[in-house]
Write a structure and sequence with these properties.
5 helices; 174 residues; mainly alpha; 2 domains
């Protein structure tokens, strides 16, 4: 996770202040003795959102490496997967463009949140919204139908009462 200085520098950049450099945190590989400490470029100023995206992507890669190491230590995964993962326990700068792009996707998601952009609606949120709208429509239609039924009942009652009155009057004059 980014330290406060990195986070503050990222926020300053988003606010348009790129006068202070954004530093890459130092990473340590603790999974095995075959991997040693490595450190990316330090005190590299962030000059654009593209640079910030790269810094966040690098941080995402570091986070994934730590997560993967923990999984390797605690879970039973296939040897093939373990080897594939270990091949990626390298600095972000040494990753293939394809692998960097996977980290950039997550960096862009972070930037959307930081920028206050609304996340794209999910199926769950669309379903909830649709369900609520449907409930409102059904409630309105049901209320309209109930009102019409009540009106028809009142008309029938009045008509029936009129018929009874007429029958009573007719009976009285026979």
């Amino acid at each position: 996770m980014a330290d406060n200085d990195t986070r503050n520098a990222a926020l300053r950049l988003l606010m348009g202040d790129n006068t202070q450099p954004l530093q890459s945190p130092m990473k340590e590989n603790t999974h095995s003795s075959t991997h040693t400490l490595y450190e990316e470029e330090q005190e590299k100023p962030v000059e654009s959102k593209k640079d910030l995206t790269e810094e966040l992507a690098s941080l995402e890669h570091d986070q994934w490496v730590e997560w993967a190491k923990n999984i390797l230590d605690s879970e039973d995964i296939t040897a093939e997967r373990a080897e594939r993962w270990k091949d990626l326990f390298i600095p972000y700068a040494e990753l293939s463009e394809e692998m960097k792009e996977k980290d950039r996707e997550w960096a862009r998601k972070v930037l959307k949140i930081v920028n206050g952009d609304q996340p794209k609606p999910t199926v769950e949120s669309n379903t909830a919204d649709l369900s609520k709208a449907l409930e409102q429509v059904l409630t309105q239609r049901t209320n309209v139908h109930i009102e019409k039924i009540e009106e028809n009942v009142d008309k029938a009652r009045n008509h029936f009462q009129d018929d009874i009155r007429e029958d009573i009057i007719a009976e009285a004059f026979r």
